[in-house]
Amino acid sequence: MDDSALVRDLIRAIIDLDPEMEVVGEAVNGLEAAGKVVDLRPDIVTMDIEMPVMDGLQAIERIMAESPVPILVVTSRGDAKTAYNAISKGALDLVMKPDVNMESAHEFVAKLKLMSKVRVIPHISGRRAHTPAAAVETPAFIGEASDRIVAIASSTGGPDALSLVLSRLPLKFPVPIVIAQHISDGFVNGMVGWLKPLSRVELKVAENGEYLRPGTAYVCPPETHMRVDGSKKIIFVGRQEKDIYRPSCDMLLSSVAEAFGNKSIGVILTGMGSDGVEGIKKIKEAGGRTIAQDEQTSVIFGMPGLAIESGCIDSVVPLEEISAAIVKAAAAGLEASAVRTGSCT
């Protein structure tokens, strides 16, 4: 669904490359898109944001309330912050408008095929809005824990999951948080801008060479990978052509395990693929604590599912309880985590 005929033709040409997929309809504005979803019952919808008559945000809200279907927002960098508002309306994820090169075309089709299998439910405006911070029962934080660190890995469905986790942490959570979220190049500022009003800790895009501060969450930009060292410094690592995941969850979590050992807390949220599984194994083996989102609340259970199967997850909890699990892990005594060192399968 896009008002540009050129973009619609490009998306159609890319989808036609896969014999298992078929374009069943097109729309030039949001109102037409909402009507065609009712008539055609597609498995998945691609949606632009800036459209005449009814924009993409309004169309997503209407579709998810009346005829829910997986929606992938396809937009430009300039619309990034607005596009993330689509997540709160019920869209599953967003990507940059595809280029004509074959690599990006195959990635785009693979994401469409995977997301088309996601089960979605009606989404009335405000239904999934997060409980205001003052009304959330966040566990009180007890004890000094600024020597600990929380590392979060997430992919498809991650921005919405992160919004809930960050909105339910204590206001004065004295632990730095580092985040690797798979995202298209150029979109991190839009995502952080969307998340900031929801977060109860300071939230920023990470910068190379800066030192971690307690009570601050750092999001890795996708144009690079990120590590942290024992001095609590962020180190950017250049991407390689063969890298599948951007940024690498495994690299970030592995560096946390190496630098912080049993003071590490690893969290793996919704997402496709296996990125983050090796990293969270290393946190477990170093004596740290590990948390995974459960299947029922995950948009895609790939990453957390594989991590759970590896035997390296201490706590499997619904999305709504992950913040509380992080607080509990951060407040736990070092003696308890020291005995957890072991091997994973």
List the helices and strands and how they pair.
Layout: H1 5-15, H2 30-40, E1 45-47, H3 56-66, E2 71-75, H4 80-89, E3 93-96, H5 102-115, E4 149-154, H6 158-167, E5 177-181, H7 188-195, E6 202-205, E7 216-219, E8 224-228, E9 234-238, H8 249-260, E10 264-268, H9 277-285, E11 289-293, H10 302-309, E12 315-317, H11 322-331, H12 334-338
Parallel strand pairs: 1-2, 2-3, 4-5, 4-10, 5-7, 6-7, 10-11, 11-12
Antiparallel strand pairs: 8-9
Helix pairs in contact: 2-3, 3-4, 4-7, 8-9, 9-10
Notes on the protein architecture:
The protein is of the alpha/beta class and 345 residues long. It has two domains: 5-115, 3-Layer(aba) Sandwich (Rossmann fold), CATH 3.40.50; 141-338, Rossmann fold, CATH 3.40.50. The chain is built from twelve helices and twelve strands. The chain has helices at 5-15, 30-40, 56-66, 80-89, 102-115, 158-167, 188-195, 249-260, 277-285, 302-309, 322-331, 334-338, and strands at residues 45-47, 71-75, 93-96, 149-154, 177-181, 202-205, 216-219, 224-228, 234-238, 264-268, 289-293, 315-317. The strands form three sheets. It has a seven-stranded parallel β-sheet with strand order 6-7-5-4-10-11-12, sandwiched between helices. Helix 10 (302-309) links the parallel strand 11 and strand 12. Helix 4 (80-89) crosses helix 7 (188-195). The protein is elongated.
